[in-house]
Each structure stands twice: as structure tokens, then as C-alpha cells.
Amino acid sequence: MKSRVSVILMTMAMMLLGVQCAFAAASDKPNVKILATGGTIAGSAASDTATTGYKAGALGIDVLINAVPEVKNYANVSGEQICSIDSKDMTNDIWLKLSKRCNELLSRGDVNGIVITHGTDTLEETAYFLNLTVKSNKPVVITGAMRPATAISADGPMNLLNAVRVAASPKAVGHGVLVVLNDQINGARDVTKTNTTSVDTFKTPELGALGYVNDGVPEIYRDSTRIHTAKTEFDVSNLSELPYVKVIYGTANDDSLFVDAAIKAGVKGIIYAGTGNGSVHKNAEAALAKATAAGIVVVRSSRVGTGSVIPAEQSYIDEHFIDGDSLNPQKARILLQLALTKTHDLKAIQDMFHKY
Ligand code: SIN
Fold first, then answer.
1. 119 touches ligand 1 (CB under 6 Å)
2. Does the beta carbon of 120 sit less than 6 angstroms from any atom of ligand 1?
3. Is the beta carbon of 148 within 6 A of some atom in ligand 1?
């Protein structure tokens, strides 16, 4: 009898210890907040073979987290819905809301990292905006999916799991905003979407990925040398809007139509996505020179996709065009928007294009 009582007591003690250990394990895990914005990762299609023609952003964050309970093995996760959009419809307002929310969360001692779920179409733009405006070294990881959540072999669940693994990893601290899809870790500045439909779409052309998620283990091998996150000069905490900057795409047979329209519409900046080394068609160049004379900042970028835009023609220097360095046009637009919140000095803005 005595030994039966002691067995019961011992069992109860072990159960109690087990519960305590489980709690200890839970509190030992990093706390990762998942901010959801919509996209294909939250997309729902009419059939499990449909990979187009679905509704992006249809599923809430709790559905996504519950579909991948394994995330809880790596972090204490909780979700928050920022918006539910197809990312082609991304706005300055959502960027500002997202950046401010990241900054609030990351300033707290009980948040170790953030994962953002996002549509892939403008994912690289949001990543770069946050890379310039989040004031923390803690991991911020953006992920998405090319196939809707309802598809056979949907890529979203593994991408979400890997994003949480990276956000929970001390190895991800201090590398700027990271883009994690298809087992690859890319840096926000240089990553771009390279394929319209393939799951292997996010690449850093020529410069290469920062790392991989190797069978569930994040490894980071290199860094961009450009300044990001906690070290930038940009502060959106008191901003409620961003300067109006448009991208104009250069082609053969170009004219001044869009540049004239942009001047008339009151833009503060123009990114000219030129041919080759940011070359500007002579018809557009005359109009862009009028733009700079009117105080609009003009940046030469390139539609080529790789390489840097460097000063080439004396006329571009005389007309005060800024070189967009190696940023693609959509990212040059973001840097110019933020630059114009700080200064209108052309030399200072040119320096920013060599720094960020
Ligand atoms: C979107 O960008 O929201 C739709 C496309 C995608 O997520 O792949």
C-alpha cells in the first residue's frame, strides 16, 4: 500500500515537473509576431489544381498559422492582420502602418522577431521600404507564396515555417530585412521577383542570395554592404504621407508625354527607367531637363535588371540627373520618396543612392 502511494506521488511529481519543463521550454522559445497583409499565401481558389484565377488575401492569419502548427516548435507565435490585399494594390498608407507597427513591436522586450506574410507582386518593394525604415536589428522576415493555400503542393506552408525559423534564429539578427521563400534567404535591397509564375522566383541577380534554409536550419553566408534598418537616417514615426514619385519607362520612339504629364500632376520626383546604362531618349531628356529646372528630382535608373547606372553623358550631369546606382526602378522610387522626406539637396540625395 505504502509503495503504491509513493508510486502515485512520484508519478504526480513527474507530471508536475513535465508541465513545468513544458512551460520552461515554451518561455525559452523566442517570441515571433506574424503580421499578415494578404497575398497568394492567403489565397483561396475554387479547386485544388487552380494556381491562377484565385482570390488573394482571402484567408486570415489564424487560418495560416493553424495550417502550420510546426511553427510553434521554433517560436511562440501570435498573428495580427494588418490588411488583406492583393499586393498589386499596396499603398503608402499600408507601408507606413506596417513600418510603425514593426517599430512598436520590436521596441518591446518580449518580441524577438517579426514575420510578414505578403503577396509576391510587390513583396520586394515592401521589403526595401522596411529595410530603410525599421529601427531595429531584430529579424524582420517577409514571406509569401506563388501557389494559393488551397492548391496541391502549395508553397506557402513551408515558406511560412521557414520564415518563422529564420525570424527565431539569432543568426538572422543585424542583416536587415530578409526575404525567405523557396528555402532561400535574400536581402531586401537586391532581391527581385524574376518569374511570373514559378515558385523559384525570388532571386538576387548576379550578387546572389544571402543564405539558405538547409533542411530547416537557417544559414547566412554573406551580407549587403549597404546601410539598412537601425543605421538609416529615415524616420517615419511622424509621417502620414510620402512624396509623390513616379516611374517612367523608357523605350525606343519615346516622347515627352508622360514626363509632361508628371510635371503637370505635381510630382516631386521622377525615376526614369532608361535603356542600357539609364540612357534617356532625347525626346524625354528635354522634358526631364524642364522637370529638374522646375525643382523635380530626376533619377536615372535602368530597365535592364542588373548592373549599376553610372554617369555617362555630360548632358545628364548638366541637367542635374541623379544616378540610381544598382537599385531597380521600383526600389529607386522608394529611396527617392524617403530621401525627399529629409532633403531636396541634389548632392545629398545622390549620396543616399550610393549609401543605401
Ligand atoms: C499578390 O501579390 O498579392 C498576388 C500574387 C502573389 O502573392 O503571388
1. yes
2. yes
3. no
Phi then psi for residue 161, to 5 deg, are -60, -45
pLDDT tens digits, 82-124: 999 999 999 999 999 999 999 999 999 999 999 999 999 999 9
Report which of residues 169 and 46 the model is more confident about. 169
Q: Which of 11, 37, 40, 225 is catalytic?
A: 40
Q: Name the residue of 37, 88, 94, 147 to mutate for ligand 1: max ligand atoms within 8 A of Cβ.
A: 88
Whether the Cβ atoms of residue 122 and residue 76 lie closer than 8 Å to each other: no
Structure confidence at residue 17 (pLDDT): 45
CATH of domain 30-231: 3.40.50.1170
pTM to 2 decimals?
A: 0.92
Q: Is the CB of 329 under 6 A from ligand 1?
A: no
Average pLDDT over the chain, rounded to whole? 93
Atom of ligand 1 nearest to the CA of 144: 7
* Whole-angstrom distance, CA of residue 292 vs CA of residue 312: 18
Residue 188 scores a pLDDT above 50: yes
Helices (H), 203-328: 257-265, 282-293, 314-318
Question: Is the model's pLDDT at 328 over the cut of 60?
Answer: yes
* Annotation marks residue 49 as catalytic: no
Name the segment(s) of the chain with CATH classification 3.40.50.40.
245-355
- The band of 136, judged by pLDDT with boundaries at 50, 70 and 90, is very high
Give CATH 3.40.50.1170 domain extents, the chain: 30-231
71 three-class SS: helix
Does residue 144's CB lie within 6 angstroms of at least one atom of ligand 1?
yes
Question: Which atom of ligand 1 lies nearest, measured to the CA of 121?
Answer: 2
Q: Which fold has domain 245-355?
A: Rossmann fold (3.40.50)
End-to-end CA distance of the chain: give it in Å, rounded. Answer: 75
User: Which DSSP string corresponds to 336-347?
Assistant: HHHHTTT---HH
